[in-house]
Amino acid sequence: MNILGIETSCDETAAAIVQDGHQVKSSVISSQIALHAGYGGVIPELAAREHLKNIGPIVQAALNQARVELQYIDAIAVTSNPGLIPALLVGNAFAKGLAATLGIPVIGINHFLAHIYGTFIDNNESLNNPENYPILALVVSGGHTAIVLIQQDGNAKIIGSTLDDAAGEALDKAAKILNLGYPGGPIIDKLAKTGNPEAFNFPRSLTGARGKPLAPEHKFDFSFSGVKTSLLNTVKSMTHIDDILPDLLASYQAAVMDVLIMKAIAAASEYNARLICLCGGVACNSYLRQNLQTAAEKARRKLLLAPPKYCTDNAAMVAGLGFHYAKNNLLGTLDMPANARLDHNLGILPFAIGN
Ligand code: KG4
Ligand code: ZN
Predict the structure, then answer these.
(1) Distance from the first to the final alpha carbon of the chain
(2) Which protein residue's CA is at the shortest distance from atom 14 of ligand 1?
(3) What is the CATH number for 17?
(4) CA dist., res. 19 & res. 80, Å (int)
(5) Is the pLDDT of residue 156 over 80?
(6) Shared domain check, 156 and 289
(7) Based on C-alpha coordinates, what's the Rg of the chain?
(8) pLDDT of the residue at 211
(9) What residue ranges line ligand 1, CB within 6 angstroms?
């Protein structure tokens, strides 16, 4: 079954053709980073205008690269939530129009779940191994930071999430404070490589560190606004930051990532998760990948790191997940809405082994 995936939830216009949920025939991404860089963040209306310009050519490019003609597309999967509404509407209107013209189904995809599926596109067999369940997904992107527990029957539950900023947002805002450019994640990752992560002692929020008691209901939740303020105060107190910039960034990056690692491992142990998967844009981070690997080995948990090309926004993860909805006849409609917010009721995930 050939699924055309379309992604326009933020600042990437992407289209992909994926066969049977795992055979990626094409994955084309047009990034708008340069357009938004000057603002230090994504401007929704500018993003929508750019999607409108790009969506037709990007879908055509995905079809050309896959050498698949429109008549051989079985369904169209499109990110319908969560995301920037003006941006989502472009992809959804395009997908619905094309699906109606071709007389094929349209499927609304949850972008958050698509990020989780990004881990499994090239590792589909892991989903079919009962020994891997429950699976714990650490989803870390510019918009989300959450720990999700997935049972063998597809039941999925968010057991922890951020109370304020997402991990990627914490990195992007730090880069903005320091005038380093946008998006901050990859820039910090690169500059932190030569720094000492122990040079500055930034707080590890919601961990019960520094003698502050941790409320049990926030055991697996995150908070990154405090560490961001701490960075701001540190920067304000210094006259020259150029010399110590790598140390400052390495320490800040470690403060964000150490909490993600600690909580993911603790949750895996509490819920006896057999396989941990790491996904979302921040999953590209070299410190996070390396240190989560070490921590997972120590805790004797299997670990799957989403390949970087399926970490940041792409349409292969959307088309791949779409296949599992199509297979289970869980189709969308031409009047389905687009939603900005993540519905915390994730429903039954159709790619788990029991489905
Ligand atoms: O998944 P994604 O492309 O978009 C959302 O759904 O949000 O994630 C984008 C986020 C940005 O915050 C960006 O700074 C971060 O992923 N990111 C990274 C790296 N590459 C991208 N963060 C840390 N290290 C990286 N190498
Ligand atoms: Zn994303």
Answers:
(1) 17
(2) 185
(3) 3.30.420.40
(4) 21
(5) yes
(6) yes
(7) 20
(8) 78
(9) 10, 141-143, 168, 171-172, 183-186, 189, 280-282, 284-285, 312-313
